[in-house]
Specification:
The chain is α/β, with parallel strands linked by helices and about 400 residues long. Helices cover about 40% and strands about 15% of the residues. The longest helix has 18 residues, at about 350-365.
Length: about 400
Amino acid sequence: MKLTTKDKIKVLFVAHYTDLYGANNSLLQMMLELRDRGVAPTVMLPLSPEAKGRNLIDELKIHDIPYIKAPIHLVKWPSRLKVLPNYLLAISELPSAFKALEGKRFDLVHSNSSTVTTGAYLARRLKVPHVWHLREFGDLDYNLRTPFGKWFQKVLYRGANTFVAISDKIRNHYKPYVGKQEIRRIYNGVKPMLPRVMDPGKPSVDFCIVGLLQPTKCQLDVLKAADILANERGVRNFRLTIVGDGDPGYTGELKNYIREKGLEDVVEMTGRIDNVPELLTRMDVGVVASSHEAFGRVTVEYMLTGMAALVSDGGANTEIVDDGKTGLVYRSGDVRNLADRMESLVKDGDLLRCLAEAGKEHAENNFTSKANSRAIGALYAELLGKEI
């Protein structure tokens, strides 16, 4: 039973950045579907400058979701020199965050990341339940540190009403820090994707890897595998498209490798693009090479598009892809094993087709946005004693 307009559950979602990367894409889709279930969302965003290009604020305006700007600072940071000052700044500016909510009422606060504490303090101030969404390892995937080491995390995560982890790997990672509190595993949900355009007469197999360009995403490993195929084994009937932006130094390293190995005819770097779903319709295989993937949203996007998924065994990738059945898995960091897997898909069209079909069915049965919003809605209903 959906709630009436009068009875809608008012939820404040706290976001830690304005770019449209994985966490905010997941948040946006979750809010849109929860709104259909009787939830009235509002988003609190940091005061930092808006991200360039299409960003979360643009999407909130399009979908008529209200937002509030307030001082929100990460309490985890890659630099040892910045992490403590940033934490102290976050604490000192809490009164300004409280003031931003004056005159507003919320039934629940939902923090969209493990990297900010603002939502926990706001929930305590408002005397409402708090949900803390654990979407990243932090230390393993982004090299983030806390001010006082691991002890700080044990203090940081005590007292929240409940935690949501986007994979079993994430849940197990945070168990030591939350005491006896329950961590519920609710997989991210992905909305339906545009279908892949089938072209049996195409002379090459198109691979792509989509995501933030940084060392832990291991795009360089994929380039090394492409070099093995093209220059060592003479396999050149494939194309690799690398989509995304990020670490300037690492981006330069990738470009230099392509140039030094003479891979310009088989590799393209597009930079960041807004219409990734349309690009995926022209691809055959999606690669996720991350050494510590928290969930694998882009993996599911590949599968829902009808592409074959090729993933490393790092992080939660193997929770999504069953090797040889719904995709292919290679040993993380083993570029020759990756090259072998890529070559098998280039040379065996039937294998590629079977994996793509099975992967799409598996993703549709397990990782849809509807399943995600249904589970989150049930959690809210439990915490608030209301039916959603």
